[in-house]
Amino acid sequence: MEGAGRESDAALEARTERAADADAEARGVGGFPIPDNVYAETVTEVEHYTDRLFRFRTTRSQAFRFRSGEFAMIGLPNAERPVYRAYSMASPAWDETLEFFSIKVPDGPLTQHLQKIKPGDTVLMRKKPTGTLVLDALLPGSRLYLLSTGTGIAPFASIIRDPETYDKFEQVILTHTCRIPAELRYGEQLVAEMRDDPLVGELVEGRLHHYTSVTRDADFPRQGRITTLIENGKLFEDLGVPPLDPATDRVMICGSMAMLQDLKALCLARGFEEGANNKPGQFVVEKAFAD
Ligand code: A2P
Question: Which distant-in-sequence residues (6+ apart) come within 8 Å of 150 by Cβ?
Answer without folding.
Answer: 53, 103, 178, 183, 255, 256, 288, 289
